[in-house]
Each structure stands twice: as C-alpha cells, then as structure tokens.
Amino acid sequence: MFIKRYVAKTVNEALQQIRSELGRDAVILSQKKIKARGLAGLFGQRVVEIVAGIDEAGSKNSGQMEKVVSPPLASSSPVVSVSETPAPHIEAKRLQSQEQQLQEPATLLQAASVQAELQDIRALLGTLLIGEIDGVRSRELAMTMQQLTGTSLSQTLLQRFLRLHAESVGTNPATATTAALRRLVSEVIEEAGSIRALDPKDRLVAFIGPTGVGKTTTVAKLAAVSRLRDNRQVGLLTLDTFRVAAVEQLRTYAEILNIPFAVARTGQELQEQVDTWSDLDLVLIDTTGRGFLDTAQAENLGKLLSQIPLDLTYLVLSAAAREAEARQVALRLKEVGYDALLFTKLDETILPSLILTMVNELHRPLSYFSIGQQVPHDLIVADESTLQAYFCGGESLARSS
Predict the structure, then answer these.
(1) Do 363 and 192 touch, CB atoms closer than 8 A?
(2) Which intervals of the chain are annotated as region Disordered (predicted)?
(3) Could you give the CA distance from residue 289 to residue 96 in angstroms, rounded to a whole number?
(4) Helix boundaries (H) for 66-151
(5) What is the largest CA-CA distance in the chain?
(6) Residue range 106-148, pLDDT digits in tens
(7) Cut 0.70: pTM above it
(8) Which residue, of 19, 243, 244, 359, has the fewest CB within 10 Å?
(9) Using alpha carbons only, what angle is made at residue 353 by residues 350 and 355, rounded to the nearest 5 degrees?
(10) Which residues of 262-272 are buried (b: 16+ CB within 10 A; e: fewer)?
C-alpha cells in the first residue's frame, strides 16, 4: 500500500489533494489537528493532518510515488473511503458501536482517547457529507447531522432521525429535515406518556434532583401559579437544610405569597408537618440536591420521603447538563422513584437534545419547562409543540446556524 501524509488548513483542502494525487479509491487512515511550525517555534497555526493510502494495484500514479510499509493500525482506527460518502445510517451504527466501548472497563486516558477519536470521525463525516452529497436538501441534512451529533442526542435517536428523514423525503423532499425533527419529538414524547402537570387531586408533591438545577426556584414558581391562578391553599416545605440560602430563599417566597412555610430535618418532622397541614390543598416539598452520585445519599432521601404518602414526584434536571452526569443522577434516584421529568434552564441551551434523550431512556413523561428565573412567569407546561419550536423554530437547524 502507498501511504502519504497531507497537511492543509482545512479538511476540504486536504481531501482535494488526496483525490488529485491518489485518486478516488484512496482511503483515510487517520485524521487529526496539529500545530504548524511558526517562527522560532512560535505563532504556529492549527492545521489538519490526514494520512491517506491506496492499494498498489489501484494506484494510477504508483510509479511516481514512494512505496512505504503500512504501519499496523489499532482496531479503533477509522478507515473512511474518499470515493464515496458513508451512508448516514451505516455511519451512525458504526459510531454507536465504538461509543459502546466506553462503557467497558478502561483507564481514563483510554476513554479520553477514544472519545477524541469519535469527535474527529464525526467532524470528518460532516465534512464528507457536505462535500459529496449533491442537492440543497442533502446539504441541509448534512448540516443538521453535524449540529445534532454535537449535542446530547443519543445515537439511537440519531439513527431514528435518519430513518424518519428517509421516509419524509418520499413525501415532500423540500421539508424533509424539518418534518423528520418534528416527528422525532412527537413520537418520543407520545411514547413516554401524557404530559404530567399538576392535577387538582395531587396534594403531596416532591421535587428531587441534583444541586444547582433550580429546584427551589421551580418550587416557588409552581407555588405562585397554584396560589394566584388556581386559588389553591399551598404550603412550602423544605428538606434542604444543607444550603442555608435555599431555606431563606423559599421562606422569602412564602412570605411574598402569604402561604405557610416549614423546615423538616428528619422523617418524623416531615410526617408531623404534613399531618399539621392536612387542611391545605397542596404541599410542595423541596429536597436536598447534594451527592446523588453517591448511592448512600440517594438511599437516605428515599427513606426520608417514604415517611409520607406522596402523590407525585418530579425529577428535576437541567437541559444544559452533560448527558453522562444526567444519566448517572437519574440512575441513582431511580430507587427513590419519580413519576415525571421537569427540565430547567432551557434558556441556557441552544438545542435541548438532552430532553429527548432522557425521556426516551427513562420512559417518563414530561411535566414543565423552566425557561428563565422570573417567578412565576418563566414556567410553562411541557408539550411537543414547544419542544418542536426549540428544535425547528419554524426553520431547519441548518438555517439557524
């Protein structure tokens, strides 16, 4: 095999050189970003290095090239054909297979190396798609795929999007990308069940989740809506004695709304306070958010909440959270139990792909979206049209970039 190293400012420039010298049967053996040499080792710019090769029998310019021995390639090294763009569903399946390797026991260094390689493959895939697929709509699909693969959308949902896109192309090619995104959102939400907002029958409602996601503010928003709009008798109860600021924050909201407020430190205090408020229509319970990556902390919370007959428990997650962390928290709190998902900080994320991923994996319905800090205005009931608007905004993702 003839192997040659190409260095260029962009991937496209390197690919053009490869096609010109090696032909369209060449294969990409590796691709990475490096720092070019500058004056006295300084001021070097970031460039792309691609190593490409071609079988000796298939090379038209074999006489003009130096024959080198092909170095052994690691099993995880990508080999991408330059002559044709990989089919999106095949590439997505290959990426999923490689990402599953991260779940196997490995050192942090190995995991980081594989993750970096996957990112390079995604970037190269997007470039190849844009450069090789003909037609405006295919270009739009390629750009959308580039954006989606850079978010927390799972590989399972990426493959599903491609399947829906293929079906939509047959109906109306001009709107296939947007239609596929809307169908994906609609199907995932529908499969998880009806939206689980507060019901008049719900009396004891708890909010669980990691620290910093905005549970306390969300509790205050729902208290304000229930008191001012629905005219319900509401009480605020907090178990979060770990953060003094959380107690004072909720106490202040209770004073503004002129509703009762209490703090419970033990299961007995929790039970006694709930019994004392038996005449209230609704009791909203804020919980501590610390240490849920520690199984013991989740178990302690579960024991505490088991002292009262909860009607509804919301798992509160940030739409801007990292996928791995959100998944771990949800797994730890599964033993505590939760009935629906409530996502905050939609105003802090460009594309809330984590919402679809978690709804699809946890099989729990949505409830509310928190879209800002204002109480009570920035809390809306979750529905598919709202989430579709975030993904499409009336236009495709490609056009919004």
Answers:
(1) yes
(2) 62-81
(3) 32
(4) 88-100, 108-132, 136-149
(5) 92
(6) 444 455 555 555 554 454 444 444 334 334 455 667 777 777 8
(7) no
(8) 244
(9) 115
(10) bbbeebebbee
